[in-house]
Structure prediction request, 147 residues.
Amino acid sequence: MSGKQRSLIDELRERGIRITPQRVIIFDAIERLRGHVTADDIYQEVQKDNPYISLATVYRTLELLQDLKLVTQTNLGRSQTFYALQGHGLHHHTVCTECGDIAEFEDALLDPLRTELRERFGFECHVEHMSVFGLCAKCRQKKAAEN
Prediction:
C-alpha cells in the first residue's frame, strides 16, 4: 500500500466508514492512476485486480469519497466527469474549446471573485474543482491571424 492510500483508508476508518475489500481495490486503482481520471479509467484498472467489481460499485465509492471531501470532480469539456484525489491539491482548469488544451491554475486566482460575491451578494462561494472554457493563447493568435 502506498502512503496516500494508507492515509485515505485511515481517514475513512477514523470517520467510522467500513473498509471493504472492494473499496481497497478501488482506492489502490485511484492511487495508481493519479491525477484526473474517469470512473471508466478506474473501472478498467480495478478489473485487473478483481473482474467481479462492477462499474456501479466504482461510482458508489467515488460518491462516498466526494461526500467525505476526499475526491473532487470536474468537467474538462469531454463527455465524462473527471475525478482527482483531494491530495492532488486544490486547483482549477482552463479548457480551450478550439484545440482541447487543458491547463491548471491555482485556487488563489479565484479569491477576488469569492470576495466580490460575498461583499456584493452575501454569497459564500464553494468552488472545489472548476473548469473555465475559452480560447488558449495559441488559438486566439491563430484566429487573430485569420481575420
